[in-house]
Design brief:
Arc Repressor Mutant, subunit A, cytoplasm, DNA-binding transcription factor activity, transcription, 10 strands, Jelly Rolls, disordered N terminus, alpha+beta, HTH-like, four-stranded antiparallel β-sheet, HTH_AraC
């Protein structure tokens, strides 16, 4: 069976996920207006995606459960029971794939369940072409499917990791996530423990990460890093403080660690950033 590499570039490494990895497409099928699943639960030897094009269904995968419709990519790890029931006639793309290297247990939790895409127009375009290729399994068709599925994953990654302003998007967050955001703001420049933050909201770390990302487009750790680097950038341009002192003021143990994070996230070392023109 032919397998095609699809690269999924992710910046969720702050919460334990590798910075980049690839998936290998194994199978793509398309189901049209399915009234009911032949089995109310099934288990697969591959990672599986149900990409809904029309209709709705409810699912349960481990401790993840909910309702899925257009814009949902419902992802199930291998050798895991996938419980599902249609709520209305369902048209969806069925995709089997493997990773180039197996995700960690934390990554598996983050990637399981319903992943959301909001750019429905672009998603529909990809689904249209996948639907046209659905019955074809030759090499050329699989290469084209690779491109389309890859684009869907990149779209998910882009939406997930593009920073959204907390203030502008706060209206979409529930009370708990607004509380989490404010707690991060209040404590970003000192020691901050995400596990303790989650427990204070009566959530698990995985639940906090998933809900915070859904509300704000970034994980709690990514938001903390953003706040710290924004302050560091401001201090670099507006003061003559040493890198060591700036690190202390921004919640980092030392200047070396700040420099490493700054270079990784801002694309240049602090010394180069400081040399930028000031106005």
């Amino acid at each position: 069976m032919l397998r095609w590499n699809i690269y999924f570039i992710s910046h969720m490494s702050g919460d334990g996920m590798r910075s980049d990895f690839a998936i290998r497409l194994v199978t793509h099928l398309y189901w049209i207006k399915k009234e009911a699943f032949a089995l109310e639960r099934d288990i697969y030897s591959y990672w599986t995606i149900f990409a809904v094009e029309d209709g709705r269904f409810i699912y349960r995968i481990g401790d993840q459960q909910g309702e899925a419709g257009l814009g949902s990519l419902v992802v199930c790890p291998p050798n895991t029971w996938f419980h599902r029931k249609t709520l209305e006639p369902l048209s969806f793309h069925f995709i089997h794939f493997t990773w180039n290297a197996e995700p960690s247990l934390e990554e598996i939790q983050l990637l399981s369940g319903a992943l959301k895409i909001t750019d429905i127009e672009r998603l529909r375009s990809n689904y249209l072409y996948l639907r046209m290729l659905a019955l074809e399994q030759d090499k050329t068709a699989m290469e084209r499917k690779q491109h389309l599925v890859s684009d869907i994953w990149r779209l998910y990654e882009l939406e997930t990791n593009m920073p959204r302003e907390i203030g502008l998007n706060g209206m979409l967050a529930d009370v708990e996530m607004r509380t989490a955001a404010q707690l991060i703001i209040d404590n970003a420049f000192g020691p901050i423990d995400m596990k303790s933050l989650a427990l204070s909201l009566q959530l698990t770390p995985v639940q906090l990460t998933r809900r915070f990302r859904a509300a704000y487009g970034m994980t709690p750790s990514e938001y903390t890093t953003r706040l710290r680097l924004d302050r560091a950038s401001k201090l670099l341009l507006e003061t003559e403080l040493s890198i060591e002192k700036i690190a202390q003021l921004c919640g980092y143990e030392n200047g070396f660690y700040l420099s490493r994070i700054f270079r990784s996230k801002r694309g240049m070392p602090p010394s180069q950033y400081r040399s930028m023109p000031r106005v």
